[in-house]
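[#protein-structures] MJ: dropping Lytic polysaccharide monooxygenase here for a structure pass
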Amino acid sequence: MDHSLSTKCRLFLGTLLALTSVAFTDAHISMIYPLPRGHPFNPNTGFVDYNCRDAPLYDGCGGGIGKTFPCGGYPPDKQVVQSFNAGQVIDVRFGNAQFGSPGQPQLTPSSNQARHAGGLCEFSLSYDQGKTFGVFARYHGSCPDMYYDWPVKLPENLPSCDSCIFGWSWINAAATQAEFYMGCADIKIVGKSGGAGGMLPPEIANMPLRLANMPGQSYYHAPGDQYGNTKSNGPNPAEVDASMQSAAGGPDSSFQAMGTPRRPRPKYN
Ligand SMILES: [Cu+2]
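AK: finished. structure tokens for Lytic polysaccharide monooxygenase:
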């Protein structure tokens, strides 16, 4: 009887160790400002995802909601309280379950923040609850990085909306398989033109998200930087300038997929 107890005990400890090592070796990064759907810090989230908040889409992360496109499959927030003005600059920030919160280790330049040598970050808006997204800003190469703010300017000509989606999506550069990450914040936008129920301006609506590394899409990495999982040089000043002019730069001619397309991962739900 003692023997069976201690066996259970060892099994339990083994499980704990396994869970812990998964949490640290399979680390990723996610948007933490604006506060996205699914995040434990978001008081209005419709689903609290303790296990897979930082995970890419379709990677088989267990215990979560089975992250799918768009927005990780999370339900909309219970109420929309994050409000921005058309033309406002949003300083996007990133974090993860290892860094950035009270009681967690201080982020240092050499911290492993699981940024996978950056890649391509796209910032988008949806005025139809995630059916379509239009890209209004991009950062190539060094994004994401928890060390920096990533300023993006909401276009001046956005109409008002009571429940829009601010999207961050990321195609990673290295350090792990070719992945696609997405975080969605439910926001209100106070437009210069007033009146809710508008649509995305056509120049934004016509700039679709770059989709990759999920069922039905190609598998590849995006060009990144040389800093691996540690602190980078931050946002490219030219891209900050472009963002301040609300200029995504049109179709993304500067983007080149890296490497040969990879086989889909086996673990789709
Ligand atoms: Cu990762």
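MJ: nice. Residues 96 and 175 are 16 Å apart (CA to CA).
AK: one more thing. The chain has three helices and eight strands.
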